[in-house]
Amino acid sequence: MDLMLWRMIKHSKAQFIAVLVVIAMGIAMFTAISLAGFNLDDSKDRYYQENGFMDFSISVDQIPASLIDDLRSMPGIRTAEGRITAEVPFIAENADRVNVKLLSMPSEGYEINQLLMREGRSIQDPNNEAVILSQFADGRKISVGDDIVIQVNGLRCSLRVVGIAYSPEFIYLIESIQSMMPAEEGYGVVYVDELLAMQLLGMYGAYNEVFFLYDLDHQGHFRPGLTEDDLIDDIEKKAEPYGHKASVLRKDQLSNALIGEEINGLKSMGVSIPILFLLVAASVIAMMVSRMVKKDRIKIGVMKAIGYSNRSVLGHYVKYALTAGLIGGMAGILLGYQIAGYMTTMYADFFEIPSYGMKIYWAFIVGGLLLSCIFCMAFGAYGARGSLRILPAESMQSESPREGKRIFLESLPFLWKRLRFSQKLVMKNVFRNKKRSLFVLMGVSLTYGTLMFTMTMPGIIDEMMVKQYEEYQTMDYNVSFSRPLLNTVRRDLLHELSDPTYVEGRIEQPFEFSVGNREKTVVMIGVASDSRVFNLRDRREQKIVPRGGQVLITENLAKALDVAPGDRLLAKSFLAGEKEAYLTVQDIVKQTMGMNAYMDLTDMGDRLMEHGAINGVYINTEDPDVVAKLREMENVSTILSSQDMKDMFSEYTGLMSIMIGVLVMLSGVLGFSIVYNATIVSIGERKMEFSSLRVMGFGKDEIFRMILSENIIISIAGIVAGIPMGYAMTTYFAESFSSDLYTLYLTPTPGATLRSLGFTVAFLLVAQFATFEKIRKLDFLLALKNRTS
Amino acid sequence: MGIILEAKNLKKSYQMGEVEVRALRGANFAVEEGSFVVILGPSGSGKSTLLNILGGMDVPDSGEVIVSGQTVTSLSDKELTQYRRTKVGFVFQFYNIMASLTARENVELATEIAENPLDIDQIMEAVGLKERTEHFPSQMSGGEQQRVSIARAIAKNPDLLLCDEPTGALDFQTGVTILALLAKINKDMGKTVIVITHNAGIADMADRVFRMRSGEIVEDRSNPTPLSPEEITW
Asked: What is the distance between the alpha carbons of residues A673 and A18, in angstroms, rounded to a whole number?
């Protein structure tokens, strides 16, 4: 029996290899993505633990250092540390200016958000030494020993770089969520001694950020009777008099949230795509085994006649499937393990997480192999079930012709009569084996759908950037002030910047929105009623402006708070002494990046700040020195450039094209494997028929054209069915990717639809022409000898 | 009547595992146009190999086959396809008709590629299947399926009808009716019919009989008084 099994594999080697490739790819993806995801998660957690990544933090106006001791002694808190933070300009040697986050480092030991030194040392001379974040050092090519210049409150300060470090707080370093992608040279972090920071920013004996580590037991729980919510409430109450601005939980910390999303996305991808591959491979196996059983009818009869049981006969064919599962699974695991190593290193390098080596999760290794074997065995048994019905005596007799049936098209005479005979023949063949036609149809749909989704992917970032920065917001710069100013400050800016320049006042302020027990902290934006830079759109893409007493909210905020237009919500400012107000949801607006609420500028100032106050401006200008001029101005704290963000995007398209290439290849392998195997099985089954046709005088090319026509019809139907599948996959992806951070409005474009069509046709043609060889080698003399057609 | 087919010193060997089988060892014969020929021989005598070469499905190691003045053995693969399409019709022991096509469609399959096909309705009537044209093979008896196979072979209007054990899968009575049909086609349509069989009884209805043994024609016999199919027995 084992010898027979080996011969079976040998005789079907091309198909067997095609199936192995699909299984191996599925298992390789499962192993690689899962291992990479879990190893990355492990590395991140270990990094967090070893470097005391914060559990919770608050931002305040100023909090005295003495209060930190008080916070530290709260039950449930292991330690608390204060820090000074400020966004300041970094002035490069070529006078180029970018924003950096200036952070204080305690002179003495600290526990929270500890730096991991890559090069150099910690600060020893508090007066002019700095440690900078690794990403920024690389992006700006800054080495230990270099001098850098920052500007604080209008004064230039030269610092000597003594160390380059990683921080668990800035694994994913971006300036704000609107930046979307990290830009190493565009934004950085500079650490100075606490005393220097206090001097530079005039905050003697005070901090504006406090970080906490919780006091948890081994299982990560608070002591009985204490909850995180209660603890946070208590902390916020204590911070209230000091201008409590915002509270951030570890899970919401920007870098952690973004990297968490990446890893979770990776983990979920590690299951869904491999299952798809295994399903395809297993279906092909079922089809192949079913064909073998038919071909081996006499052999099976003989085996049963000499005493083999149904179980051993069935087992023989299941073994064939199991062999494919085992070999493919093992090859996949080996390949996947290799890829997992590369992937983990690549991701760890990308995020600058220290590498803690690759841990083997045996559950995935064994799981991958089991998954592969179970799929193959189950589908193999399904394919071989026909062997149970074969009776020894019947198998020796000639097989009666299969029942012929009219196809449904024949009941449409107006159509059927218009077809030429050769076309009728093709149609009959398409409907002859409905299961296989359906399998090919589904395979083509899957290939086309996957390709359509893949081809739509480049549009994801493009869509987000274009929508955000060319449709919804059209300002060139978003400038924040260090304190609220009167709207009349616009005139000063217009005076400073050369024409043509447009300046529009705005308020951007974090607010806590609550409805019942649901709450969410987001930045609310006050937009001028005649705004020329904001084009807010409702869900029907109609322009909409915020009305007095009402608020427009983004779709993701509406979802998070579970509110609809007409509902009322409470907006509470984080700024000390600011008011709170009940606002009615006017409508829901579209936005691709971030989660926001919008109010009329004047109304927002009146209700929630000061009359006529703004805390920033939007600028559209052609002044080439705008950034330099703004940096020199008093009260300007940060400058965000839309162009910088668009430039960042183009840098990432290269990375995206590699990913697309891989996905296109995977889709191609699927399409090829399905069409190739189905055609080979079909040729095997119809060998007698084709041989008879050859004897009758049909040429090889005519027979090939007949099969090609059949597959073309099925493929056209598959592509048509693939369109909704592609849309569904894209929508699913858009929905699963949409979060607090991003909202995707993604539909395949005509270009993506056409490109995917081109690729699908190319893959199918390659598969089709690979089968031509089988027809060329067809031994048609068999037709004279055999009993079945 | 002229010679329609001539075989000259045909030799053919093939490998069967490690054994070389000499299927034809120099077969020579000629067939007159419009005659009914039976090639008789036991299993392994080389008759199927001979038929395959005559039908342009196989090529000899040496020797020639000339059909209607055309040397079949020197044709290219493409030309052989054309030869099978226009000059010869085949009838198989196990019919080899398409299960998914009706009787009429099976015949239409042949007329589709023929240069000068016969009228399908007339053929169906001639083979006695006028009332069964829309039936599928699974709805027909073995004899009826063989009639479809014969109809398909002659629909192309070939010069030669090559039949490989046409009654081999049928009972005696049905076999006789099939032979009668072949005789009718030979007489009424003037087609040259070559039947290969191991059944010596069939030889009595032939105009000419070639007996084969071990790859050679060991007997070439003319039959001036062929019996009608109904008179023969086996």
From this structure: 6
CB atoms within 10 A of CB A506: 24
- Strands A501-515 and A613-621, by their bridges, are antiparallel
**How many Cβ pairs within 8 Å bridge chains A and B?**
104
Secondary structure class of A328 (helix, strand, coil): helix
The Cα–Cα gap between A296 and A284 comes to 18
Of A96-110, A242-256, A589-603, A656-670, the least confident: A656-670
B96 to A692: CB separation less than 8 angstroms, yes or no? yes
Nearest residue to A524 (alpha-carbon basis) of A511, A506, A537? A511
Owner of token pair 């007329």: B111
String of DSSP letters for A723-783: HHHHHHHHHHHHHHH--SSB-------HHHHHHHHHHHHHHHHHHHHHTHHHHHT--TTHH
Is the confidence metric ipTM above 0.90 for this complex? no
Question: How far apart, in whole angstroms, are the C-alpha atoms of residue B71 and residue B90?
Answer: 19
- Residue B141 at interface with chain A, using a CB cutoff of 8 Å: no
Predicted pLDDT of residue B10: 94
- Pair A322, A380: CB distance under 8 Å: yes
Measure Cα distances from A107 to A125, A168, A310, A386 in Å.
10, 20, 80, 79
Record: contact B94-A398, CB cut-off 8 A: yes
For A240, the enclosing helix (H) or strand (E) is none
Interface of B with A in 47-76 (CB under 8 A): 48, 51-52, 55, 57-58
Write out pLDDT tens, residues A232-291.
999 999 988 888 888 888 988 888 887 887 787 777 777 777 787 788 888 888 888 888
Determine the residue type at B123: I
Q: Cα A221 to the chain's mean position, in Å?
A: 31
Instruction: Decide if pLDDT at A223 tops 50.
Output: yes
Contact B52 A699 (CB under 8 A): no
Looking only at the bridges linking them, the beta strands covering A246-249 and A56-64 are: antiparallel
Give pTM, 2 decimals.
Answer: 0.66
* Exposure of A467 in the CB half-sphere (CA atoms within 13 A): 21
